Amino acid sequence: MLLIGNGRLLTRNGTEFFENGALVVEGRYIREVGEFAALRAKYPQAEFLDAGGGLIMPGLINAHNHIYSAFARGLSMPDYNPKNFNDILDGMWWRMDRLLTQENNRLSAYAVYADCIRNGVTTVFDHHASYFDIPDSLDAIAEAALALGVRTSLCYEVSDRDGEEKRLQSIAENERFIKRAAADDTDMLKGMMGLHASFTVSDKTLEECLARGGSEAGFHVHCAEGPLDLAACLADTGKRIVQRFYDAGVLGDKTLAIHCVHINRAEMELLRGTNTAVVHNPESNMGNAVGCGPVIHMFREGLLLGLGTDGYTNDMLESYKVGNIIHKHQLCDPTVAWGEIPAMLFEGNRKIAARYFDAPLGVLMPGAYADIIVTDYNPLTPMHGGNANGHILFGMNGRYVTDTICNGKVLMRNRQLTGVDELELMAKCRESAGKLWNTLGVK
């Protein structure tokens, strides 16, 4: 039994807040939440993790990531001068993912999950591609997730772009991993059917993905991210992207529609009507210059919205800050995003996770999974449940996290990871990335 206390406690159960709170962890669940003095007296034999006056809050959830992109950090591709998002895909990401080995997949996963722990992220929905070596590539990522103790949902990016053999291998990899995850009773692994985007998947591919696990596990798909994706869909099918996915049976309450930058109100109604979740990735949208998605409008229309990073960072609080700014700038309205973006991060991501995992995540209450973080944030103004988001937005980032617990297991204590030698890991990553870069012709 573990007692975490002696700090401000933000449960995310409504606006519940304890000035000096604590919680008791038994196994992988939270047993009790309350005042520190009372719980310490009630559980005198429990192991004690001292928050030291910091902020105790639920572990963060990243609703869309690309672990494989980690080895692109610092990479400058030769003869690479993109003019639009499709140039970025073809000139960088697809060139790289065609060369990723199982070693690259495994080590980048270890590095990313370690960084997630450092930033207080305890659940990750990942979208993978490694067209050089597809079979068992999701197992390489799962190895790292299980070894480091991070809860994760994995899928492989199905696409027609590299031919029939690779298309079939990618569908099979999803189908295999969906079955593996379904047989895992730890509730630490989930599998979904990954799709790249409308413009690289045929109707035949959509039909096969539905038949081979997608209809039950749900889809994780980039949706209307760039304008050329929409243009291709209109030219090839006469439909907009969400309509095409709706007609194909891809949408539903187990599907994650990522981005949805270039959609209209009719498409919002299809997403809402099918209870499909949309995941916003503000930094990625800005960096790839694809536009600013109408998520404020979607929020007002009652869609379920979550927040992701798309591989740009593993710090969800960084994405919170960017999301808070971009919509004010885009709409020329200083009143927007104050409530919508934190609702996506702290409420939407929790609701999304609840569609896949068995016990509550993103909230500290009895019966929820013990996914908990402690930060060393010391507020300079009064803090309570009603203004905590403002404190987090302007006073914290991921590296304020000192302790990370997932599924009742302490993964980081006093900023020291418990499950990995980080110096050794980073050395192995540099060596593996160096080999990849040499293959790409980068020095």
Topology:
Blueprint lengths: L1 E9 L6 E10 L2 E7 H7 L4 E4 L4 E4 L1 E6 L19 H13 L4 H17 L2 E6 L10 H12 L2 E4 L2 E2 L5 H19 L6 E3 L1 E3 L7 H15 L1 E5 L3 H11 L3 H8 L7 E4 L5 H9 L3 E4 L1 H6 L7 H6 L4 E3 L8 H16 L8 H15 L17 E4 L12 H8 L5 E6 L2 E5 L2 E2 L4 H19 L3
Parallel strand pairs: 1-4, 1-5, 6-7, 7-8, 8-10, 9-11, 11-12, 12-13, 13-14, 14-15
Antiparallel strand pairs: 1-2, 2-3, 5-16, 16-17, 17-18, 18-19
Helix pairs in contact: 3-4, 3-15, 5-6, 8-9, 12-13
Main traits of this protein?
six-stranded parallel beta sheet; 443 residues; alpha/beta
User: What is the molecular shape?
Assistant: globular
Q: What kind of sheet is the major sheet?
A: 9 strands, mixed
Helix/strand-derived category reads alpha/beta
Tell me the β content: 15-25%
Q: What Rg do the Cα atoms give?
A: 21 Å
The tally of beta strands, per DSSP, is 19
Termini Cα gap: 51 Å
Mean of residue pLDDT? 97
- Helix residue percentage: 40-55%
Which stretches are poorly predicted, pLDDT < 50 over at least 5 residues? Answer: none
- How many helices? 15
What can you see in these coordinates?
The protein is an alpha/beta fold and 443 residues long. The protein is built from 15 helices and 19 strands. The chain has helices at residues 36-42, 85-97, 102-118, 137-148, 164-182, 203-217, 227-237, 241-248, 265-273, 282-287, 295-300, 316-331, 340-354, 388-395, 422-440, and strands at 2-10, 17-26, 29-35, 47-50, 55-58, 60-65, 121-126, 151-154, 157-158, 189-191, 193-195, 219-223, 256-259, 277-280, 305-307, 372-375, 401-406, 409-413, 416-417. The strands form three sheets. Strands 1, 2, 3, 4, 5, 16, 17, 18 and 19 form a nine-stranded mixed sheet that branches. A six-stranded parallel sheet has the order 9-11-12-13-14-15. A four-stranded parallel sheet has the order 6-7-8-10. Strand 13, helix 9 (265-273) and strand 14 (277-280) form a beta-alpha-beta unit. It is globular and about 65 Å long.
